[in-house]
Amino acid sequence: MFSFFRPFIFKLEPERAHRLAIESLKLNYLPKSFFKTENEEMLEIKAFNKKFPNPIGLAAGFDKSAEVYNSLFRFGFGFVEIGTVTPVKQYGNPKPRIFRLERDEAMINRLGFNNDGIKLISERITKNKSNGILGINIGPNKNTENQEEDFILGFKNFYNLADYITINISSPNTENLRDFHQVEKLIKLLKLIKKEKEKYNSQIPIMLKISPDIEDKTIEEIADVAINNSITALILTNTTNKNRNKLIESNKNEIGGLSGKPLENISNNLIKKFYKKLKNKVLIIGVGGIDSGKSAYNKIISGATLLQLYTGMVYKGPEVVKNIKKDLINHLKQDGVKNFKEIIGQGN
Predict the structure, then answer these.
(1) Which letter does DSSP use for residue 309 in this model?
(2) Three-class secondary structure of residue 332 per DSSP
(3) Three-state DSSP class for 12?
(4) What is the C-alpha separation between 157 and 128, in angstroms, rounded?
(5) pLDDT in tens, 168-217
(6) What does pTM read for this prediction?
(7) Buried b (16+ CB within 10 A) or exposed e, 311-338
(8) Is residue 26 within 8 Å of 68, Cβ to Cβ?
(9) 130, 171, 295, 302: which one is catalytic?
(10) Residue 85 burial by CB count (10 A; 0-12/13-18/19+): exposed, middle or buried?
């Protein structure tokens, strides 16, 4: 069905096509059974005291304002992450701000955390209980006077509504946000979050979303900080604002974060490096270029326990999750593996 409609969808401006997708998902018309496949028990895993039906999650950025997460679970996702949510509703950067790079199977965005803000989003989640594992990605407003305080506000409002919270320090589209990759600044932020957890007696898992554009020296520093500051998982990685030289499309130099297939090997290499440093003390959620069972398999053997995608669904439609699960199960059967957790990190 998607292959039939794709030419028409791709004639629309990307942000308009995305809005159309959100409104269509509100109708919730596709049966959950349509997206199931055989032997899915091979993909089950328990992570941070939660049972995931499979490791394939939807990355933050699609359902920014928590409008359709339960409809997305019907596609077969093992978990869904909404956001990035900021304390106050914001429009984001001027349009146009999303660009398809079709021949590169990639996208560039400079959205700038457009979302409906904490108040409205928390009300939506309260009224519409999640049917699966729901993560909430939080970040600061563009014009905030205190980015740390914005993260704290996000935590305070969502710690009792989410299954986990992601601290997003890695978007290239919010000024100075990536400064939190500096050790002292990062430690200070995480100590503030930890203090809030203790204040509310919360056990909620905290994820940290990392930029792919960091140097090797920073990998070791962030790994140590994550281990020593009770981070449950690192999300590797966000979009890159570099790595344009091998792209084909003429709009490859648009300012913003690049996602999709060009990020696949970059994130895999970073996952391998972090996996060696983290020594299973902090989990890895692998993101970047996942659109097939093989690409998912490569992320897992690189060291990822869980996975996320977004751009892959843009290009391959809602059936991409089912197809990934089916292909991944076939890969596991060929290897004589009963459950994918047996191969995590085997490529190192």
Answers:
(1) E
(2) helix
(3) coil
(4) 16
(5) 999 999 999 999 999 999 999 999 999 999 999 999 999 999 999 999 99
(6) 0.97
(7) bbbbbbbbbbbbbbbbbbbebbeeeeee
(8) yes
(9) 171
(10) buried
- Residue 171 designated active-site: yes
DSSP string, 169-235: ---TTSTTGGGGGSHHHHHHHHHHHHHHHHHTT----EEEEE-TT--HHHHHHHHHHHHHTT--EEE
Buried b (16+ CB within 10 A) or exposed e, 140-160: bbbebeebeebbbbbbebbbe
pLDDT in tens, 239-298: 999 999 999 999 999 999 999 999 999 999 999 999 999 999 999 999 999 999 999 999
Collapse the DSSP code of 149 into the 3-class scheme (helix H, G, I; strand E, B; otherwise coil) and give the result: helix
- Go through the domains of the chain in sequence order and give each one's CATH number: 2-343 (3.20.20.70)
Q: How far apart are CA 220 and CA 138, in angstroms?
A: 24
Handedness of CA 336, 303, 109, 156 (dihedral sign): positive
Tokens of 130: 């999640």
**Nearest-angstrom CA–CA distance, 275 and 292:** 22
Distance, CA of 304 to CA of 169 (rounded, Å): 20
